[in-house]
Specification:
Layout: H1 3-12, H2 21-25, E1 26-36, E2 39-43, H3 45-58, E3 59-72, E4 75-86, E5 93-106, E6 109-119, H4 125-130
Parallel strand pairs: 1-6
Antiparallel strand pairs: 1-2, 3-4, 4-5, 5-6
C-alpha cells in the first residue's frame, strides 16, 4: 500500500468504535505533534490510546471531509473537517473541527504526525466555504 492508501485507510476506519485503532494504524514509535486551540501536545502510543478511549466514550461515529490529500514519497498532507455523532445527541451530526496534518508513514503505519486544528465555526460562512469538500 502507498503512504496515501495507509493514511486514507486510517481516516476511513471506525475511529469512534475500534478499540484496536492504535495498534492497527500507528507505528510502535509513533509521535503526533498536535497544536490545537488547547495548546501543544506530543502524543505517543500510550497517549493515543487514551485519546481514542475518550473518543469512543464521546462519539457514536465520526467522519472526515477532505479538501486536500497530497502524497510525496512517504509523507501525506491532509486538510479536512471532522464531523461526529455524539453519545448525547446520536441523531445530530455536529461539525467538530478543521485540521491540517502531515503524516510520515514508516513500515506501513503512521510514524510521525504534525497536526494543527481549530474548532469549526458554522456561523462563519467564509471559513466554512474554505473547507467545502473538493472532489479528490
Amino acid at each position: 500500500m502507498s503512504a496515501k492508501d495507509i493514511v486514507k485507510a486510517f481516516y476511513e476506519s471506525d475511529i469512534a468504535n475500534d478499540v484496536d485503532i492504535v495498534s492497527k494504524y500507528f507505528h510502535k514509535e509513533c509521535e503526533l505533534h498536535w497544536t490545537s486551540s488547547q495548546g501543544f501536545d506530543l502524543l505517543g502510543n500510550k497517549e493515543l490510546e487514551l485519546f481514542f478511549k475518550g473518543t469512543r466514550q464521546s462519539f457514536e461515529s465520526v467522519r472526515f471531509e477532505f479538501t486536500h490529500f497530497i502524497e510525496a514519497n512517504n509523507f501525506v498532507t491532509t486538510r479536512h473537517t471532522l464531523f461526529g455523532f455524539t453519545i448525547e445527541e446520536p441523531e445530530i451530526e455536529s461539525i467538530i473541527a478543521h485540521f491540517t496534518a502531515i503524516w510520515e508513514v514508516k513500515e506501513g503505519k503512521l510514524f510521525r504526525g504534525y497536526e494543527i486544528s481549530h474548532q469549526a465555526n458554522e456561523n462563519d460562512m467564509t471559513s466554512m466555504a474554505s473547507y467545502k469538500e473538493i472532489k479528490l
